[in-house]
Design a protein that fits this description.
With 275 residues, the protein is α/β, with parallel strands linked by helices. It contains 10 helices and 13 strands.
């Protein structure tokens, strides 16, 4: 009896250990035929939806997880909950890695979201009058891009060499005495009725349903910003050569996706495919 009881206990113990092992593995093992990608709703998730058919042709499934902020997609990727994410540019990723001690890297470039100057109370640069307000993003990167865009259209002049680190303190000439109002980038579309013009990120313009006709100027595809701030497909270090990531990047770089971006976003989003 004692021997039988002992044997039973050993068997039960082994079963419990096996069950725990399976439970633990369930958290880390991934379906090699499913590609889980975190993305901002617009335009990233929309672009991924177009790539879905190309991914399925290669025998893979695509699962898109949408995120409204710019922190959680990298956290989820670093935690192993995603295979890739698609929402950011490389300078943002470099800063995130540095601050959070993560090892996320670029698997490919996808597109550039052009900042645009959008109509508010005024419908053109010619209508601007002394004291008019132009809203620009208040974060360092996008404020500099906005100021460079205004400079390229003759509204202000910046200190030589200010480049992509420019702030309104670097304005050395402001002939029309325009007031530069620094505002959270996501809120600028809502402020358009209260300002002469607003400089808005491509994703926020799309999210606010602003059209090409609402925009009077935009960053060019060969601008300094376009070269540096192309949106990327990001993966954990060591994963960019994985088969599923190759399939994802290939699908996102397809002619079908390129045509969709050009026709859908009409210059607000510009393809910048590269690996």
């Amino acid at each position: 009896m004692k021997k039988r009881n002992l044997a039973g206990i050993v068997v039960i113990g082994a079963l419990l250990i096996g069950a725990l092992a399976l439970t633990g593995c369930g958290k880390t093992e991934k379906n090699d035929k499913k590609i889980v990608v975190g993305a901002s709703p617009t335009p990233h998730a929309e672009i991924l939806e177009v790539a879905r058919e190309e991914i399925e042709k290669e025998g893979y499934m695509l699962e898109i997880k949408e995120f409204e902020d710019y922190v959680k997609p990298n956290q989820a990727l670093a935690d192993g909950d995603l295979d890739a994410n698609f929402f950011q540019h490389e300078p943002y990723l470099i800063d995130y890695n540095k601050k959070n001690k993560t090892e996320i890297e670029v698997a490919g470039l996808e597109h550039f979201e052009s900042l645009g100057v959008y109509k508010g109370k005024k419908k053109s640069f010619d209508e601007l009058a002394s004291g008019d307000k132009i809203a620009v993003p208040n974060d360092t990167t996008n404020e500099a891009r906005a100021l460079l865009l205004l400079e390229s259209n003759g509204i202000i002049k910046l200190k030589e060499g200010a480049g992509l680190e420019a702030t309104k303190k670097d304005i050395v000439s402001n002939p029309k005495n325009i007031e530069i109002e620094e505002i959270d980038a996501a809120i600028i579309p809502k402020t358009l009725p209260d300002v002469a013009l607003g400089v808005i990120n491509g994703n926020f313009a799309l999210g606010a349903n602003l059209k090409a006709d609402d925009r009077i100027a935009g960053e060019s595809s060969d601008s300094e910003a376009a070269l540096k701030y192309a949106n990327i497909i990001a993966v954990n270090k060591g994963d960019k050569d994985a088969k599923k990531i190759e399939v994802l990047v290939k699908a996102l770089h397809s002619d079908k996706v390129k045509t969709f971006i050009e026709e859908k976003y009409q210059g607000t989003v510009i393809p910048k495919f590269s690996k």
